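Exercise 3.2. Students should predict the tertiary structure of the chain below and write it as structure tokens, then compare their answer with the key that follows.

Predict this chain's 3D structure.
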Amino acid sequence: MILEDVIEFLKKAPPFQFLDEPVLKTVASSISMEFYPKNTLILRQDGPPSESLRIIKKGGVKVFRVSEDGEEAIIDYRGEGDTFGFLSLVGKDKVRANVTAVDDTLCYLLDKETALKLLDSNPVFTEYFLKSYLTKYIDRTFKEMHDKSLFYGGSDRLLFTTRVGETATKKVFTVKDDATIQEAARIMAKNKISSLIIVDTKTLPVGIVTDRDLREKVVAKGRDVSEPVRNIMSLPLIRVDYRDYCFEAVLKMIRHNVHHILVIKDGNLDGVLTNHDLMLLQGASPLSFAKDIESQQTIEGLVPVSEKISKIIGLLLNEGAKASNITKIITELNDRLVKKILEIAEKKFGASPVPYCYIVFGSEGRKEQTFKTDQDNAIIYADVASNEIEAEVNKYFSKFTLFVRESLLKCGFPLCPADYMATNPKWRQPLKVWKKYFSNWISTPTADAVLNSVTFFDFRHVYGDAGISDALRDSLPSMLEDQKVFLGYLANMAIKNRPPIGFLKTFVVEKSGEHKDELNLKVKGIAPIVDIVRLFALEKGVKETSTIERINALRDRHTIVHEYGDELEQAFEFIMLLRIQHQYEQIKTGKTPDNFINPNKLSNLEKKSLKEAFHLISQIQDMVIDLYKSMIW
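Answer key:
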């Protein structure tokens, strides 16, 4: 062996690639090499423990156990860069499984003494082997992706790593609720503050007064400044714990349209966090985008603001945000944009003749939207008593939804090719019709019915009367009771798209065409997880729509999620982040974003993590087949 060749190989193989150069040279100098022809039994189940840690240089192995009755259970296939023999080397008692060469295989052998020294002296080496096959890669892969990102600027304090308590203003000024408006204004002017906490006789916070309250409720309306300040204070008070990350505060401020938020520590008021604090923290704030949207009164004014929303993804990537954090903020901003368009539409066409709610579904319904995707929306309105009112409602919503559709189009949301939009009369119906839709799709699961189900069952209320959409959501569990045939169709869909991973964990890519040598992250990676988790959620009556929220709700309610919930969540986060980074790079270079990546352009660690994520998906799909075998055909 040539020492330099061994070092070069180890530099690309986790966990050796994380070792310092001197340590790596020491390891390489103690390595030997062995060749195993195809079908060679390298380690025997219940045999003597391995004296070496083997690293596959070329070829591949099958890891499997044989039961007492001779039945073979395959545990894993491992290929180039993978290791085997670790457990028996450390356990020192026996080999737990058979390991056979499935091809002519060349391995580097790291002797037992050196391997154990590495475990004792290098935490990264130990962490790699002691964690599960997925989690051992994920954290480091996220860091590598973050570090190599073009957006990484080494900011001192970041939105996703800074606690609220580190940023909030500690000195809180208060005034009794029976103080006058003028007294409150004088305190604010004297101390040069933008907000004042109003407290009751027990000094408990009951409200807040801000500069905006003084402008809009006092000066603009000519209010008597001798009135009690409680008459103009804002409620409810929005609070955040001092240990939360600033990201959580941003979400609450966007959602509730406030620029000040109380910071609570051990049940007591500890400070106030403002939009200004967050802007100082990161140089720019997602709140500024929300404020820009709120200030617009025309669709023409919203268009340039909507174009800026995608740019915030660069900021979030810069701060090392997880995929779910990015999609949460994008969802809040897109929701705000849609609500503003609907408000403008109501001003243009007048109030609806009947209570209604505007819902979204698909990735938007699951709060997993990144860049602007197709419009997927519908309207549910209250049941009406007569044909005359029905005609009036149809006339109103026909014009209303057309205006909303074209406004969304101007703001960068493409039309849905399948026409899943509220402009389609089929998708703007009274509550009783929607309940009938859902019931029929479940009881008669044709191909179209199943497609409609997985599309619409992820719906989420965005605007209007939430009670109407809640009534539809609440009716779903009873419709699904004992519907094994329908669940069988969903199970079939969940196992249909197998991950693009080959016999030896090699990527299976497109062989020709526009996407030659590429694979589809959405269809082969994200969609199977979404489909599997949706199946479990609908079966267990979970009302959440986002994949991560569904996983968390299912942890104590579904056996598979109870055991593999963490791995599923991490795999989903990783593939989503890979997709977001890929699409953002495309947009930067003027390309239309897609879901196809060339795995050869990924780092070794990214490849490894993606392979393990795909392997997990495939493993859980096999569990779905076993669990729902009586329903699957």
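Discussion points: The longest helix spans residues 559-588. The chain has four domains: 3-129, 164-282, 352-467, 484-627.
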